[in-house]
Request: fold
Amino acid sequence: MVYYWFTVLKILVVRNFQSSVKYDQTIKRTYRVGLFDCDGLRVMTASKYTVYMDFIRWELIARSKLFKAIVKRGLAPTLGSQKIIYRKPLKLWSKFDVILENAGWDEKWVYNIHYFEQNKEIKAVGITRALVWKRDVPSVLGDIMKEIGGVEKSEPPAWVLDLFKKDKEIIEKSQIIIEMLADSK
Reply:
């Protein structure tokens, strides 16, 4: 966790020395698979992909007008759901790129696609949807986007929306199962 917060702090400091980016700009960052990123087989463990996805989203927010709009309102960007497809492993000490592409947004969610690329080959793809909160209430994303000069709406591709279509239903069914298990004890 120390590495995570050190990297986020570094992103927030270094943003002052980097060019700004648009909220919907595709950005890319190169990383190296470190010793603590790996499992016993010397390949990057699944949990680290999500960490690198966080880093690139932090960078996009920090370097765009989103940062000031979010901080000014006292909001918290929050990940709502993510899906990851692993194709091939990233091996210890090897370099790889994380490419963040904005897939669109609606009144509540921002959708992003994260590509893990190495030697011009996609090793994994992560798709996320995120929102911004204030005191446990989702904020109206449209107001923020309007403030930073965003378009009215940028509808994500149907395949992206389909990935998240049943998320709420899955959570609700899981809650029922947990309650049934608790009652049976």
